[in-house]
């Protein structure tokens, strides 16, 4: 065996021993929150398509029309091949939706955070990131070369202590957080954080990947990034900010400059989805209402977003519970370290407007039977 394969096998054996190995499972998604696996139709609670828009016929028609008219791929970076009108239209709509001067679309949310953070911060700067922030916030921070410190999750006291201690030495400072935390479903105290940031002249970046369209915006940050791949049912990432910041990133964000533009069909799909988000408020309210129905049934604290974690502790326990639910027709994936801290393996239950009340109640009943004494 080559040293390369020996290295891979050794690392995989360690993951297996700790119940942390991940495997891709062939799954076909369909309408009404359905997922087909091994010839069985499951109800999916493991998807970020919060409004079911990736399956919406209007969104699909918009993507099909764009693809028929403009083809499948973007051809090159937007700075090289030219700026596609579908992307311009989407950026204008995103900026209008968020109430900012401008917006910039990236290839994905992950790429957006890599590019934004590393373009705005560098050596001699300070980045403070919520300890439960998404992997791409940390990756962007590392790429920037700035000093990066984590503050305890949603702990403004800790954030202020770190600002008081380290801000003076740094040229510029950024605070990175999420509007809705992807694995916990809780929300950042943004109004208070923005006041603290202003006091210490720090720039707040809010990752709105799981908030757009499904929770109220509340306080707005100068850097509002997000993804087109969850509520908007498409693919891609974005930043909404001032015109000056967008112009700078168009020049400096390496994950924008040196990568191919988004396919026009993805932009058209996201644009059609944004129309639906804005014109169908009852649909947008549904995932949170279903999440609250679920937490009430289980006697858990009221859901703050369409994401409800059920923390079970060890990875094997989470895997076993997920498997037992699958046997009953529910797809609820187990989330294990390093996605979440050690000892906090969990089921992450994600609600969607495409689910029915009966499906939600069915999952609640199955969980009460399989795992009484639940906590979030
Ligand atoms: C909080 C958060 N930020 C960013 C991303 C990355 O977005 P994308 O999937 O568009 O790369 C995700 C999830 O994938 C996320 O959960």
Automatic annotation (TrEMBL):
The cofactors required by this protein are:
pyridoxal 5'-phosphate
Could you state a single Gene Ontology molecular function term?
8-amino-7-oxononanoate synthase activity
Q: Name one GO biological process term.
A: biotin biosynthetic process
Q: Which UniProt keywords apply?
A: Pyridoxal phosphate, Transferase
Family annotation (SUPFAM superfamilies): PLP-dependent transferases
Q: Where is the Aminotransferase class I/classII large domain?
A: 42-367
Q: What Pfam families does the record point to?
A: Aminotran_1_2
* PANTHER family registered for this protein in UniProt: 8-AMINO-7-OXONONANOATE SYNTHASE (PTHR13693:SF100), CLASS II AMINOTRANSFERASE/8-AMINO-7-OXONONANOATE SYNTHASE (PTHR13693)
Q: Please give the name of this protein.
A: 8-amino-7-oxononanoate synthase
